[in-house]
Amino acid sequence: MKKSRKATVFIVAILIFTFTYLTFFGAYNFRGDFKDTYFKGVNDIRWGIDIQGGVEAVFKPEGDVSKITSAQMDSAKAIIDTRLAYNNITDSEVFKVDSATNKQIIVRFPWQVGTTNFDPAAAVKELGETAKLTFCEGEDKTKIILNGDVDVNKASAGPHPQTVGQYVVNLKLNPSGVSKFADATSRLAASKGSISIWMDDNMISAPTVNTAITDGVCYIEGDFNSESANDLANKINAGSLPFKLSVDNSQLRIINPSFGKQALNVMWMAGLITFIMICVLMILLYRVPGIVASVSLLGQVAGIIACVSGFFGFANSFTLTIPGIAGLILSIGMGVDANVITFERIREELRVGKTLDGAVKAGYSKGISAVIDGNITIFIVSIILMGAFGPSNGNILASISNKIVSFFLFMFPPSATGTIYSFGFTLFIGSIFNLIMGVVLSHKMLGSLIRYKVLRKPWLYGGVRNGK
């Protein structure tokens, strides 16, 4: 048991270093033109308009606009908002122009991750697609079995259950869809018939029905990689537009960044130098605890970057703006503060004569209340910021926060979404990883190190040396 406790510091440190490497550099596999993403890295972060610029586009309904109602315009605007939110594009603005003769939806949003050609027409195409999903008997659309808007409860991307390296879109049906699909597949299974799956007027696939599907769970297979499968799932979840929208190419406008990528690179370098200086300072001041603090602080930074880049797989890359970076830096400062509070308590206990084991235990015990109090305060602030300035649909964290603070949302303008929400998000995530890394794992590592005889010297933990 003692040997396993002594090894804890190495196990935790290796996990943190591995996690940090994967967080920054990601893990990918290239198969010709297909790119399989196992873990997303820094290059998958979607930067806000203030950092890398973006697009302003004007969408117009096709056909006779006099027949389009105000309710339909509201629905179209809501669906575009939802599509942006499902992709974690929070640094965006959507406006509606709704008069008798002029109906438009104006959208401003940042460039996609990895954009190199900066083609505004291509960037806005996905937002205006109708994305109507239907399941039809046979390979034509004459006999519709399911309508995505009514019968599909939820769509999500995932690996193919039978083919390694392939991706599918998993579907969970509503009760109405379960009964319809069960009846259709039971009938078609006997004759080995097929069900075609259509997105608008394009047939995605037409699999043969071998057995009846009665549990309301199925999947769409096709020539998908992880990104295209996730994109289709998001469009299905967002729903179909009430009418077809087209982009007015004459009004497309590229929005220049107010900050810029070059300044961002300078900021990354400044952040790296500052991080190294902080680690050196903590090691000089607190010695062994300073080393532990440096490792835990690295884990905290990696954790924040992982949540922003979409590392964990259940969410897309988060849109990171300048205020979001400020929240990241502030949360790192809180991590330093948490370690300093604890290590000062350990130093005080050692200087009043406590043993090393007793001082470490008492230091964490006495420091934890101040650390938790500070983090609870940040939790409350970040939840208010995300609830007040975040999207009310599409993003789980923002939706929950939105409901919590809904009683005073009337005080905030609806166009204030992007940049402030980014600040609240990074602050919230930073607080969580501050507790995980700066309290739990740092305690585990320090408790492991004091079991080594060569390190059982009080002055290595801030105590006096040679009784002085």
Describe the structure.
The chain is built from 14 helices and 16 strands. The protein is α+β, with helices and mostly antiparallel strands and 468 residues long. The longest helix is centred in the C-terminal third of the chain and has 34 residues, at 356-389. It is elongated.
- Can you identify the CATH class of the largest domain? Mainly Alpha
Oligomer: single chain
* Domains, number: 3
> What would the principal axes of the Cα set say about the shape?
elongated
Roughly what percent helix? 40-55%
Q: What is the number of strand segments?
A: 16
CATH superfamily of the largest domain: Multidrug efflux transporter AcrB transmembrane domain
Order of secondary-structure elements: HHEEEHEHEEHEEHEEHEEEHEEHHEHHHH
CATH topology of the largest domain: Multidrug efflux transporter AcrB transmembrane fold
Radius of gyration: 27 Å
Count of alpha/pi helices: 14
**CATH architecture descriptor of the largest domain:** Up-down Bundle
Q: Which regions have little confidence, pLDDT < 50, spanning 5+ residues?
A: 405-416
Strand count, sense and closure of the main sheet? 5 strands, antiparallel
User: What class do helices, strands and sheet pairing give?
Assistant: alpha+beta
Strand content: 15-25%
Short description:
It contains 14 helices and 16 strands.
Question: What order do the helices and strands come in, and which of them pair?
Answer:
Elements (H helix, E strand, L loop, with lengths): L1 H5 L1 H18 L1 E5 L2 E6 L6 E2 L1 H4 L1 E8 L8 H17 L6 E6 L4 E8 L9 H6 L7 E5 L6 E4 H4 E8 L7 E7 L1 H17 L3 E5 L2 E4 L11 E5 L4 H13 L6 E3 L5 E3 L5 H26 L1 H22 L9 E2 L1 H30 L4 H34 L6 H9 L12 H33 L19
Parallel strand pairs: 3-16
Antiparallel strand pairs: 1-2, 4-6, 4-14, 4-15, 5-6, 7-8, 7-11, 9-10, 10-13, 11-12
Helix pairs in contact: 2-10, 2-14, 4-8, 9-10, 10-11, 10-14, 11-12, 11-14, 12-13, 12-14
